[in-house]
Amino acid sequence: MSAGSHTERRDPHIDDTVRVLKNVRSRLLDANVKVPIRRFLALCDKDQPNLEPPPDPAKTQAERQLPPSKPGSSGRRPFWRECDADCVPDPYMIPRLRRTLAAATCAWLVCGTGAAQLPSRTGTLAPEIVVGKTISEIECAVAVVGTTIPSSSINEPVSAVTLSPPRWNAATDATPAHCAVDGAIAPIDQSGSAKPINFRVMLPASWMARAMQLGGGGMNGTIPNLLGGADGPLLRRGIATYGSDSGHQSGPGFAPGPTDWTTNDEAIKNLGYMQLKKTHDAAMIVIERVYRQRPRFTYFVGTSQGGREGLTVAQRYPEDYDGVAANVPIVNFSTLMLAPELIRIQEKPIANWVTRAKVNAIRGEFMRQCDALDGLTDGVINNYMACRARFDVTEGAKDRNPWEAKRCPNNVDPNAGDTSSNACLTDGQIATLKVVYSRYRFATPLANGVRTFGMWLPNTDPSGSGLIVDTRFRGQDGAADNAPMHAHLGVLGVTGFLMGNPQANPLDYVEGGPLENRRRQLSEWLDSTDPDLLRFGRRGKLIVAIGTDDTLASPGAQLDYYQSVVDRIGRERLDAFARLFVIPQVGHSLRGNNYSVDGNGRTIPVAPIPSAFDRVQLLIDWVERGIAPGKSIPVTAGDKSMPMCSYPMFPKYAGSFACSER
Ligand SMILES: [Ca+2]
Asked: What is the pTM for the complete model shown?
């Protein structure tokens, strides 16, 4: 049979089946399992799913629309050998192939539960494999779970781990039956500002030997939604989930709680990284006590702060995870908390104040200069790299002014209240915008030798998350005597962590001043900027996605981190285990719209930008089935679809959208 006819018959479902089959076979060979597949068939036959009915012998070959057998063929074709190279199985083999897949899976289970443990790729013994294990209310009991975990079992310093009595939750329409176990990890520090880490483990009645640690959000302080939220019903996927409040407690709802923890170094280090390991180690023990084995596959999935935590575990604890998915990660946490203050400090002279009246003029200028850079004037800036290069004044010719076209005549604003796109900008306002849209250079390098913070990218939300405000704050020229102190989501990282006083004025910060040593210390604890992901890549798979119109996280810092990883380990090695996706013009929720005015100044209809994808399934497929996501994968909004491109590619238009580097 010619290679050409093989290619014509290629079918993605067959490819998937073959890939899984090869994976199972290779693991069986790794484990030195040489018992014939037929024997496992006999062992497991009664439990086998009926994957596909056998071909109807009454039908002629023509009726089955299959090509004729190879002349001289015995009818028993060695599809293994065919599948070792460029695998394209003969259609006659597919029922047999699928039956063998079921048998091989069965063999895998038999090995896992009985005679042997399968060695992992790294050469160490992996836990036993049991797929489809079930528990009931009987296992959800103090007698099984216990009341404590030895501190010596936790591989970061803790003084005690206590477990509350487990709670059994019967199945509802929304949630499958599961056991919930709460615990608390006590700090070493006995002072009042040191706090416990409260954690929870959710153990589904029907378990697929998977565990997933879920990251937090904002400044943390509450246990995340362990049912999965936007990532779908995780317990239904047979995943035991767990997570913690990260070692400090916010108030009811999302109200801020006590702030004394922000001056406690153990609490700050817990937030930064230690709680992730402590929670992981405690949860593994709870899982082992309940299911009597450790998970076969361990994951970390997080968004925003939780995305930073995902990068953190990949960098600090790479041996603990098979897969990490991190959406919109806060990469350079210590500086992200400071960055809004850097803008307000730049605006201390009243002449530098950019008011909200200028928002339409700013986004209109971004569109005018950047919309068409991707090949289509459609109100979406896809070519984020070229657009950033225009407005980041640390790139290109010295002293150039990307805002020249918007400069007020003679530096005098004739109508400061003009909110239209025609409004002009004074020199002081332009100086501030240069700070917001250019890399910020540190006085001295921070952790991992990072010298700059990427700030924000030119896009349609210049005032998002308080980047532009109409208030004068204490410490700024023109502020009233009773003016408020400037505050934002991460301000405690400046006042508490950095200045050691939650009541301090964050605008008193001085770059390169007396707080420099503390800045570097905090960066070591909090920033997930280590570009060397190779240790993680030996075992794990990583999927990251960011949006370029994100005003809460810093897309500039995220892109600079992506580039640092590429620089450190090279594109080819990175591609083997990581995807660093960028979705243009979506925000912190990875959702967004085209702008209502395109780069030519025409008003156009507004519609959502396609951005939806199932990261958990992508990750599971990659880790458990060896199916790598493409470097361009489709994302959707309703019935619209676009390619999502891995950095540094973007969706370029040439009759249709395709990922391109330039
Ligand atoms: Ca465009």
From this structure: 0.82
